[in-house]
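name: query_chain
kind: protein
chains: 1
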Amino acid sequence: MTSILPLLLFVAVATVTPGGATTLAAASGARFGFVRSIPLMLGIAMGLALLAALAALGLGGLLLTLPSLQTAVRTLGSAYLLWLAWRIARSGPPNASNGPVRPVSLVNGFLLLWLNPKGWAMTVGAAASFALLANNPNRLAMLLGAAFGVTACASLALWCALGVLFARLFRTPRHWRILNLAMGVLLAASLIPTWR
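structure:
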């Protein structure tokens, strides 16, 4: 158990720090409420768990040996997250017609995570750093998948609840413009570390 504690600490810090997924969870909570945001959160958590498991099985090694594939994943993911940031920044209050009318679905949350450069960096880094915790890749895949999946559920729920709190505090269209602009900027800024 003591050898797993550093992994759990790494995963907790990696998933709770601001990034694309956490910002989307907060924005969804603010716009649609906690319950309607559950599919998004579950989709992201499931996508992260699968990505972590695949990184442990060798996908991370493939990405590390093929820099062009790594660049392609980062470019596609960044473009998609920038588009989402733009949509969030331009949306108004939850009842405004210029924002998304439905929360992100479970499937789209799952797919969205696969385009998140931070998700790739976290899982590949964890697979490389904690490979010695298991005596074979299958066990490492189960360990990383479970750790990232469970922790992502908790951190996304926390960020979504924060978004719900924002929705209760912000009453005027001006407040919503400021919140949405801040969320869009945070989402765009979350890409900076992936390009260093």
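note: The chain has one domain: 5-173.
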